[in-house]
Amino acid sequence: MINPASRTKLIELSQIRKMFEATKPGAINLGIGEPDFDVPQNIKDAMKKSIDDNDTHYTPNKGYVELREEIVKKFKRDNDIKTTPEDVIVTVGASEALYISAQAFIEAGDEVILPDPSFLLYEACINLAGGTIVPVECKMENEFKLKAEDVENKITPNTKAIMLNSPSNPTGAVMEKEDIKAIADLSMDNDFLIISDEIYEKIIYDKKHYSPARYSDNVITINGFSKTYAMTGLRVGYLTANETNAEELFKVHQNSIACANSTAQKGAYEALTGPQDDVHKMVNEFKRRRDLIVSRLNGMGYETVNAEGAFYVFPKIDDEDFVKKAADAGVVTVNGAAFGSNGKGHVRMSYANSYENIEKAMNILEERVVNG
Ligand code: PMP
């Protein structure tokens, strides 16, 4: 056997994926992290055309300039971030953006403040880069919203970066503007980087999304097309940072990825420039499902925050065997502890499944798990 690098030994294969692969046929999957909608037709058509147009060559390393120009406009319009096409990199999903952020800026001796619970990839990216994780609790009493004062308590001279993710996977929490702003101020005062994963930006209910890059120069803003346009398999994301930081990120991107997929980039261009009706329809439908799942779970006695974004709820469920019992009854969920120690005693449920299936799943849980 060839001994793997010590950094590889620090990470594991996703337990969540493993569980899905073991799911029995016919089970209702509330474990998934992707929209159950299809890619809007105009985006499909743009991609078909791109193949006929032979847009199948390498693109500029940072991505097609027309796409980056649209991303610049999007950042200005939606996020009040001023950037230039030179400081935007089109990536292979937000996942690549997270990976290159860690590779470009984090090394042994660096502390990275990580919300607990949070998306699994963050921990893996920090570990692969050799950084030290400093967890900061997202408390249920605060509806899982990360608070600036809790972050402030974790800052040391070794703090290199913080990961932010609002709306959040796995809790659906949307951070308050004052906390975003206060953390942005802390990043300037204490010279650390904010890696802001804003992939669920558009999936938000009756609430406004604020980007920390509005208030601080030390931010890498990450976004993508997977959630907003149901383009998960097409693998397009993007980031922006100030000129100096963007250049460091670009070094890692150019020397590993070369460029994101050309046809998918054409689809992404259409996504940004075409009609947004499908996005609004999708978000309205998610809200209807959120209302259903939150009220059913609370009705069963599982205390559940009325999450303001993404497509997850994070009910308090003390029964350690709940996930197994639910799976045996035909409903797939994910143990909250998979997302960090503060997730213990919770279960993540995704409502990226049809209204009817969510209703059915809730009936199954009520009949066979709660009263079973
Ligand atoms: N960030 C978060 C918080 C996510 O939930 C996901 C997808 N599950 C990603 C990033 C990765 O997105 P992409 O498909 O753009 O790589």
Largest sheet: 7 strands, mixed
Q: Bin the helical content.
A: 40-55%
CATH class of the largest domain: Alpha Beta
What's the domain count? 2
| Structure classification | alpha/beta
CATH topology of the largest domain: Aspartate Aminotransferase, domain 2
From the N-terminal CA to the C-terminal CA, the straight-line distance is 48 Å
Within the largest sheet, what's the order of strands? 2-8-7-6-5-3-4
Radius of gyration: 20 Å
Quaternary organization: single chain
Q: How many strand units?
A: 12
Helical stretch tally: 13
Low-confidence stretches: none
Strand content: 5-15%
- C-alpha geometry: globular
Give the helices and strands as they follow along the chain. Answer: HHEHHEHEHEHEHEEEHHHEHEEEH
Give every kind of bound small molecule, once each: 4'-deoxy-4'-aminopyridoxal-5'-phosphate
CATH second-level architecture of the largest domain = 3-Layer(aba) Sandwich
Write up what this structure looks like.
The protein is α/β, with parallel strands linked by helices and about 375 residues long. The protein has two domains: about 5-40 and about 275-370, Aspartate Aminotransferase, domain 1 (Alpha-Beta Complex); about 40-275, Type I PLP-dependent aspartate aminotransferase-like (Major domain) (Aspartate Aminotransferase, domain 2, 3-Layer(aba) Sandwich). It contains 13 helices and twelve strands. It has helices spanning about 5-10, 15-20, 40-50, 65-80, 95-105, 120-130, 150, 175-190, 245-255, 260-275, 275-300, 320-330, 355-370; strands at about 30, 90, 110-115, 130-135, 160-165, 195, 220-225, 235-240, 310-315, 330, 335, 345-350. The strands form three sheets. The chain has a seven-stranded mixed β-sheet with strand order 2-8-7-6-5-3-4, sandwiched between helices. It has a three-stranded antiparallel β-sheet with strand order 9-12-11, covered by helices on one side. A two-stranded parallel ribbon has the order 1-10. Strand 5, helix 8 (about 175-190) and strand 6 form a beta-alpha-beta unit. It is globular, with a radius of gyration of 20 Å. Bound molecules: 4'-deoxy-4'-aminopyridoxal-5'-phosphate. The site of 4'-deoxy-4'-aminopyridoxal-5'-phosphate has 13 residues, from helix 5.
